[in-house]
Design brief:
Blueprint (H helix, E strand, L loop, with lengths): L1 H8 L1 H21 L15 H13 L14 H15 L21
Length: 109
């Protein structure tokens, strides 16, 4: 009960502090650039980035996909990666030495 009484008693002060903190928050929001292109954060010599550039040069468009797994053991994720790699890069292919980049996103749920 003490906290609720303090909030009601000091509501003007709390509102003033909130408004003062809103000013730098607005400047920060306006100054932040949002970039949804995940490839910008990867090194340029990574296979994923090289493949993306090749697709852009050859077809004018690129393709980049994420596969997110949840509650799957690391061994099963590795097996899934191998299955995907066999479909996308057949063993008989000349580019069979290419590797699919694997990003693991672990969920804490």
């Amino acid at each position: 009960m003490g906290l609720s009484k303090a909030v009601v008693k000091n509501r003007v002060l709390i509102l003033m502090i909130a408004l003062i903190l809103l000013v730098p928050a607005v400047f920060g929001m306006l100054g932040t650039r949002i970039n949804y292109d995940m490839l910008d954060y990867l090194p340029s010599d990574m296979d994923t980035v090289i493949g993306q550039e090749t697709l852009k040069e050859d077809f004018g468009k690129g393709a980049f996909s994420f596969i997110v797994v949840q509650d799957m053991p690391v061994q099963e994720v590795a097996q899934l990666k191998e299955k995907i790699q066999q479909v996308l890069i057949p063993a008989s292919s000349a580019s069979s030495e290419r590797e699919i980049s694997l990003f693991l996103l672990f969920s804490m749920y």
